[in-house]
Amino acid sequence: MTFLTPHLPFHDPDSERANGIPHPGALPPPGSHLVITDTIPSPGHFAVYHLVSAALARKRKVVWVDFRGEGRSSWETVLKKLGTPLPAPSSGSFIHLTPTSLPDPASSPSTSTSSPPLFDETTDAPVLKPTYEALLPHIGASASASASASGTKSEPQSESPQGAVDTGAVVILDGLAELLWMGFRPVDVGRFVRSVFAKVRSTRGTLISTLHADHLPLTSSLPSGYSGYSGSTVSASVSGFGFGVGSDSSAAEAELLERLLRMGGGGWWRVSHLASGRSGDVSGEISAASNFPPEGTAFPSVPRSKPLQYRLETNTVKVFPKGTGRGFL
Amino acid sequence: MPSFTRRSAPTTPAAPDGTHPSPSTSQPLLPTGIPSFDDLLSGGLPLGGTLLVLAPDTHSAWSRLVARYFLAIGLLTSCRNVVVGEPGLGRELVKGCMWVDERAQGGGSESEGEDVGATGEGKGGKKIAWRYEGMKKFKTTVGGSNPLNLTKTLPSSALHEAESSRQQVYIPLDDDEPGNQLRPGPSDRSWPVLASALNRLRGILDEVPRGDKLATRVVINELGSVDWGDVSAQGIHRFLHSLRSLLRTRPASALITLPAELARTPPRGWDGDRDSWVTSLAWSVDGCVELRGFGDSPNLAPLYRPLHGLLTLHSFPTNHSILPLSIKTSSLLGVSQSATSGSGGGGGSGAGENNLGFRAGRKRFEVETVHLGIEGGTGERRTEPVRDVAKAMGTGVAPRLGAGEGEGGVGNEGSCRTWLRARRRFG
User: Fold this and answer.
1) B234 contacts in A (CB within 8 Å)?
2) Of the residues A88, A230, B68, B371, which has the maximum number of CB atoms within 10 A of its CB?
3) Do B352 and A177 touch (CB under 8 A)?
4) Low complexity: which segments have biased composition (chain B) (predicted)?
């Protein structure tokens, strides 16, 4: 159980039925989509680390599409600290795809199928099809299945040797905002995510998308008990979770976020900073909303008006109710 | 199991020359040449990282000064320097680098008027109150002595030697490179120039004359200025994304400067405002620092004396650790838990982030915390001219006391005295 599980648990009846005991899950249920947004003073990397650590601990296959260009070595260091070291690249249970914007990528020796180009080599237009094609072979094979039959397609809904319901891969689309800034249109990125989600859902996998959302109004700036939308253009049904645009400045990010939320099928974790600035006691706030999750499953709900606060520490993350960072009000 | 086991050789490669290990992780860091700046970055710029320095002040060039420090310390520590930009400006940038004062080597304080770490003994033999004798002098900055001296310039012989040995390399901006077959895309007409620079940089980084023991410092000089062509916001972001992926797996780090106009207003192709532009830039690099000098707003200079500008740390390296090392170790930033947890709660524990500024003295550039003066700010009395009050009295309109006049008690007190004087004069 990693640091966010007691505070943001998921409930998956299939898993509980298979294991025989009801317990909160650290991972979103199979066939669901979790959107994670963050801001520059409070990056949401820790939430992704939590989910990856949980997936690796449960022998789920993880496919990380690194649009940010973060690199594998950083994750190796962090996940080792969290107690779930990354599997070797040759193991097949952790796939790292780094779509590249470099010119003439074929000349790079490190370029292979793991680095699909983000721009067409002849027209220089932004394209996501190579990334989708590079991603497709990795969706659907769970870690246990790939370990038993490497390279063969797994059968969804099959029973694993432990008796648990076999599930697909955890696919992470990390850094969708970076695509917008490089010239991708929100509608194209939205289509790409929808296509990946359709494939992930058919294989009982889990999709996680990360997006920077500095344009959203701060969580703690709202009065207590506030619910409703602060934006007029957005009509997605995320109950009590306003996500209006603070200004017209970040229309592309707002449009993409709206498209992601309209897909439904999961939930939204929103990481934001404090209005009072950086602090040693509180690194930021996190709230969660359910957004039409798959039938029979439950996503955590933490309202914007009463968010959880967290503090990053060297080897873990402390999560606590607002105002109780040092153990007292 | 035997009592003695044969110890195998370490599998991790040795850190390149000119780097030092991070205080918390084993990640090699490249110092920027400014100790107080390194404090903000928790020791320096991580190898494989990118640092963006914004300087929106059009009347000064603070980002160029930081870039010169970055290059100068690279020449001193046997790193390889690569400057990407217009060749003339690139060479001028290196030529103006500060250098070491040989006479001051090996001792002596290089302070100027304000000794860092000086004790409570006043200057000129003055004795201060006994209860303050044991106290250290209030410090607004950190870091030890800096070998680089702003009064010294890089000797031409050293520059020639560095250029001839390819320790100092320049990458010009042109799009007629033979290997560059890219056609200008719909997003950016100037992309061939940027692509050519990236291809040449990749070629230089891939030639490793001394194995992995050579660290490379890359300076992207004035990215997006007229020399780079008509670069759009999307082109700049694509360049930063490519640069990051290029450096991640190589022993190199980059410092990027933007022209002042691009730090003030977004380039073409960006629909949002300036804040959203800066935020997007801060996400696209590992660290983003803004040096907002007082050149454009001279009225701020006396308020913040002796500072020359304010510093904003938009982002800092967050990779290789859950808790960003800047938060963990930076004394100047002031949010380090190790610095506050000892007090056991209350008081200053968990205090917010410090306000930061910078100043360039005669010999060195420093980042400092911003504090009010001894008298709580400006010591000047700010009052309305007497004739205005007289006019007001003459027209029968009583002057408002303390409303909109000056700031704080000094201004209000002055207004009150002026009004009383005018009242006595006019009966």
Assistant:
1) 181-183
2) B68
3) no
4) 21-32
Q: Residue A91 — φ and ψ, nearest 5°?
A: -75, -25
pLDDT at A187: 96
Superfamily of domain B20-103+136-337+350-369 in CATH is: P-loop containing nucleotide triphosphate hydrolases (3.40.50.300)
For residue B398, pLDDT beyond 70: no
Q: Which residues in chain A (225-264) have CB-CB distances under 8 A to chain B?
A: 247-252
Nearest residue of B to residue A250 by CA position?
A: B272
Please state, as a whole number, how many other Cβ atoms lie within 10 Å of the Cβ of residue B20. 14
First to last CA, chain B: 106
Its domain, for residue A297, covers: 13-17+25-153+161-328
Give the β-pairing of B287-293 and B50-54: parallel
Contact between B275 and A249 using a beta-carbon 8 Å cutoff: yes
What is the total count of domains within chain A? 1
Q: Per residue in B407-423, pLDDT tens?
A: 333 334 444 454 445 45
What secondary structure does DSSP assign to B359-394, as a single string?
Answer: EE-SS-EEEEE----TTSS--S-----HHHHHHHHH
B-proximal residues of A, 21-80, CB under 8 Å: 40, 43, 45-46, 49, 69-71, 73-74, 77-78
A7 occurs within a structural domain: no
Read off the pTM. 0.83
Residue A142: give its domain's CATH number.
3.40.50.300
Cβ(B46)–Cβ(B68) under 8 Å?
no
- Going by C-alpha positions, the residue among B322, B346, B349 that lies closest to residue B334 is B349
If you average pLDDT over every residue of chain A, what do you get?
81
- Locate A93 and state its tokens: 């249970």
Domain boundaries, given as residue ranges, for chain B: 20-103+136-337+350-369, 389-426
Q: Do B333 and A278 touch (CB under 8 A)?
A: yes
- Would you call A119 an interface residue with chain B, using a CB distance cutoff of 8 Å? yes
Q: Is residue A243 part of a domain?
A: yes
Nearest chain B CA: its distance from A126 CA (Å): 8
Q: Which residues of A touch B319 (CB under 8 A)?
A: 70-71, 74
Tokens at residue B132, please? Answer: 């303050």
**What values do phi and psi take at A106, rounded to 5?**
-65, -20
